[in-house]
Amino acid sequence: MKLIDINTAAPYRVVLGEDLAGSCGTLIQLHAGLSENAKTAVIVTDDNVGPLYAGTVEEALTEEGFRVLVYTVPHGEASKNLTTYGKLLGFLADNEVTRTDFIAALGGGMVGDLAGFAAATYLRGIRYIQIPTSLLAAVDSSVGGKTAVDLPNGKNLAGAFYQPSLVICSPDMLRTLPEEEFTAGCAEVIKYGVLGDEQLFAHLERFAGDFDREYVISRCIEMKRDIVVQDEHDLGGRQVLNLGHTLGHAAEQLSNYSLSHGMAVSVGMAAVAEAAASAGICSGECAGRIRNVLKRFGLPVSCEYSMDDLYEVMCRDKKRKGNMISLVIPKRIGACEIRKMSLQEMKSFLESAS
Ligand SMILES: NC(=O)c1ccc[n+]([C@@H]2O[C@H](COP(=O)([O-])OP(=O)(O)OC[C@H]3O[C@@H](n4cnc5c(N)ncnc54)[C@H](O)[C@@H]3O)[C@@H](O)[C@H]2O)c1
Ligand SMILES: [Zn+2]
């Protein structure tokens, strides 16, 4: 079992290890800093994950003397909306959940974002614990305190920065994750290797999908920790996490989300690496390694959309400020740089890829 401390303004701990679901009651008592008045635990989960793991988590929490309530939402991004969020708040209020009680978000990034936002806002904030069950949630969304729901106008438009009190990550739970979800999460894992850890990248090249889960997940969490503690509120430093995401988001949108986030990020990473090689920012060998490792994981390295179409979507991006964009560009495996450029410059840069 490994402990990783995240020293944000409100610090918290990640406990990482196999078969932790059955001990989550004890782990929460030990590490979550709960008030002694904490009486109720609300497990928020979805209808795929709940039947697999909620029973074990419920039992573990009951053994610690908590009153345990389970709130299950339909799986999928469509549940991350204001209606579900409102119903969840209503459920908490109906059950007289108090400020010293807590939520356990048991699921992938969808559940984590939704439950985290409910925890951030119910009674102006109650504690929540992340129990990530998808690879993406383990290496990305469960750490960093970004919580949100989607609006009809766009993804993650209503949310809060609100750190969990504890993250319990038990990689054995990934065994039941559908293969395409696992592969999509691998795109983010590869991203961490390119960003900041050549050794991690080499491990992924060597083992592909059979990588050592505890080692890989812990390295990703440590890297995310280092980035997040420098830039808790996403004012600059967190931008490096957007490697592959600028073009990726555009491809995701153009496909009407039939291309998953992970697949889209993979396409974006391959494109930016090739453009970097053409511009002499990284070597051709570096771009080749990135492309090959993505392919080895069964991830796409190109998409059917033209640069003109992708560009048009990027120009419409509501979250972008003005005409400038910060593009994360690999310099070598394990190091990237951020270049500020106009959208037009970015288009020319990406088109220059041979
Ligand atoms: N907060 C952040 O910093 C952050 C970062 C990245 C992504 N996100 C958000 O995360 C969400 C995507 O997360 P995701 O990819 O985990 O999606 P998800 O939560 O929708 O999970 C993907 C699918 O896998 C299923 N699943 C999850 N764990 C399982 C398991 N162990 N066994 C069987 N099935 C399982 C889910 O039911 C779902 O059908 C998006 O809403 C995105 O906006 C947030
Ligand atoms: Zn991502």
What does this molecule look like?
The protein has 354 residues and is an alpha/beta fold. It has two domains: 2-176, Rossmann fold (3-Layer(aba) Sandwich), CATH 3.40.50; 188-351, Up-down Bundle (Dehydroquinate synthase-like, alpha domain). Helix content is 46%, strand content 20%. It has 13 helices and eleven strands. It has helices at residues 24-31, 49-63, 82-94, 109-121, 135-141, 179-196, 198-207, 213-230, 245-254, 261-278, 284-296, 307-316, 343-351; strands spanning 2-6, 12-16, 40-46, 67-73, 102-107, 127-132, 146-151, 154-161, 166-169, 324-332, 335-342. The chain has a seven-stranded mixed beta sheet with strand order 1-2-9-6-5-3-4, sandwiched between helices. The protein has a two-stranded antiparallel ribbon with strand order 7-8. It has a two-stranded antiparallel sheet with strand order 10-11. Bound molecules: nicotinamide-adenine-dinucleotide and zinc ion (ZN). Nicotinamide-adenine-dinucleotide (NAD) binds at residues 46, 48-49, 52, 75-77, 80, 107-111, 113, 133-134, 136-137, 140-141, 144, 146, 155-156, 173-174, 176-177, 181.
H/E order of the elements?
EEHEHEHEHEHEEEHHHHHHHEEH
CATH architecture of the largest domain: 3-Layer(aba) Sandwich
The name CATH uses for the topology of the largest domain is Rossmann fold
- The overall number of domains is 2
The share of residues in extended strands comes to 15-25%
Separate helix tally: 13
Termini separation (Å)? 46 Å
Largest sheet: 7 strands, mixed
Strand order of the largest sheet: 1-2-9-6-5-3-4
Shape type: globular
CATH class of the largest domain: Alpha Beta
Q: Output the radius of gyration.
A: 20 Å
